[in-house]
Design brief:
Blueprint: H1 13-17, E1 27-28, E2 31-32, E3 34-35, H2 46-59, H3 69-88, E4 97-100, H4 103-118, E5 124-128, H5 137-146, E6 149-153, H6 163-169, E7 174-180, H7 192-200, E8 205-209, H8 221-224, E9 228-232, E10 243-247, H9 249-254, E11 265-268, E12 273-275, H10 289-305, H11 307-326, E13 331-333, E14 343-348, H12 353-362, E15 365-366, E16 368-370, H13 375-380, E17 386-390, H14 397-418
Parallel strand pairs: 3-15, 5-6, 5-7, 7-8, 8-9
Antiparallel strand pairs: 1-2, 4-10, 9-10, 11-12, 13-14, 14-17, 16-17
Bound molecules: pyridoxal-5'-phosphate.
Length: 419
């Protein structure tokens, strides 16, 4: 027999990192798990799981309160993680990083602290029609209390951020612009630098919802020049229960505390209190200590791979995903035709997205179906709900192939039922 030489194949990023994620080796319904729901929450590498259990096994203790050894270890690790977050987004000062439970809490912090203190009747807040409910409902609540008016940037004809419409909405009345960086439904990328520069020219503050960008691409808050930026740890390889708010130092100093309690005070009297300096002023009560430390471990993990490398690989996956979806005639995808994240929301004619998702689950494939917390956007798109496949750097093209095969089978199955 003649030995055939196997062609030299370069390993993809996913091939290199796959083994770091213990959950990905399991079977679901007797089929290898294909996890395509990372936009809802990402999986966690072993180093992050270890960092969390290491904290509980070796040095569980409250932070900033004790002089004993364990408390010192916990405080050091907790603050070291803050430095990692600061470096990750290139903040000028680590006091500009406030830990929160998640991005939702970070947005509420800005809405209640800055919004209630600074917005007045007739002031305008610009959002987009593709905002996640977390960057919409807090502003509705604050608008109801202050009389501020919410304005919404339209979708362009290609289902992207409409820059011209944004420019037409901006005026001297605009006090705040709060926009999603990467849409969790359309995969579109908002031109944030331009959005921010235009707002600042009017003296308008800008908040960036980086939930779907922080896990997937390099971020630089100084270059971007945003006033605030929020993200959730659980979408970037960290545990649930930890997220962060970046805010410019002087701006954050000018804001009133959101929650009051322990940790955030300087001196407390019966009738009033003085507050701690940043960042503690906004971190009332015992924080998610182990989760913050594990977020630091997640950032180390991502940084070791390289955010530029992650982004480049995911761009490749995105192109491949959309190419394969385009070959299925019944599929309608949403969002722009280029420069999009590695996620695709889609519908398949009359087939209900929930039915598709349930069928795919039988093949071990995890995708999401519903409105993905962007119900107003779905109304704009005239879709009750969509199915969504969302990828991360641990996904392979082979998984996309498996997904596409199972998707076609499901569509054919339902076609026969409807026929
Ligand atoms: C997930 C997500 C949020 C909310 O994140 P939580 O972790 O639920 O607070 C906000 N905006 C976008 C774009 C998201 O994808």
């Amino acid at each position: 027999m003649i030995a055939t030489s196997t062609p030299v194949q370069t390993l993809s990023l996913a091939d290199k990192v796959r083994a770091d994620f213990p959950i990905l080796t399991q079977k679901v319904h007797d089929r290898p798990l294909v996890y395509l729901d990372s936009a809802a929450t990402s999986q966690k590498p072993q180093v992050v799981i270890d960092a969390l259990s290491d904290y509980y096994q070796r040095y569980n203790s409250n932070v900033h309160r004790g002089v004993h050894t364990l408390s010192g270890l916990a405080t050091d690790a907790y603050e070291a993680a803050r430095q990692k977050v600061a470096k990750f987004v290139n903040a000028a000062d680590e006091r500009e990083i406030i830990y929160t439970r998640n991005a939702t809490e970070a947005i509420n912090l800005v809405a209640y602290s800055w919004g209630l203190g600074n917005l007045q009747a007739g002031d305008e807040v610009i959002l987009t029609k593709m905002e996640h409910h977390s960057n919409l409902v807090p502003w509705q609540l604050v608008a109801q209390k202050t009389g501020a008016v919410l304005k919404f940037v339209d979708l362009s004809a290609d289902e992207n951020f409409d820059l011209a419409h944004y420019k037409s909405l901006l005026s001297a009345k605009t006090k705040l612009v709060s926009v999603v960086h990467v849409s969790n439904t359309l995969g579109s990328v908002t031109p944030v630098k331009e959005v921010i520069a235009l707002a600042h020219a009017q003296g308008t503050k800008v908040l960036i919802d980086a939930c779907q960008s922080a896990p997937h691409m390099p971020l630089d808050v100084q270059d971007m020049d945003c006033d605030w930026l929020v993200a959730s740890g659980h979408k970037m390889c960290a545990p649930t229960g930890i997220g962060f708010l970046y805010g410019k130092l002087e701006l954050m100093r000018s804001m009133q505390p959101f929650f009051g309690g322990g940790e955030m005070i300087a001196d407390v009297f019966f009738d009033h209190s003085t507050y701690a300096d940043l960042p503690h002023k906004f971190e009332a009560g015992t924080p998610s200590i182990g989760e913050a430390i594990a977020l630091g471990a997640a950032i180390d993990y991502l940084t070791n791979i390289g955010m530029a490398e992650i982004h480049a690989y995911e761009q490749e996956l995105s192109v491949y995903l959309y190419q394969q979806l385009a070959k299925i005639p019944q599929i309608r995808t949403y969002g722009p035709k280029s420069h999009r994240a590695a996620l695709a929301a889609f519908t398949a004619g009359e087939v209900h997205p929930h039915d598709l998702s349930t069928m795919l689950d039988q093949s071990g494939i995890a995708i999401r179906a519903g409105h993905h917390c962007t119900q107003p956007l779905h109304r704009e798109l005239k879709a009750q709900s969509t199915a969504r496949a969302s990828l991360y750097f641990y996904n392979t093209k082979a998984e996309i192939d498996q997904f596409i095969v199972a998707l076609k089978e499901s569509i054919d199955f339902f076609a026969e039922i409807f026929a």
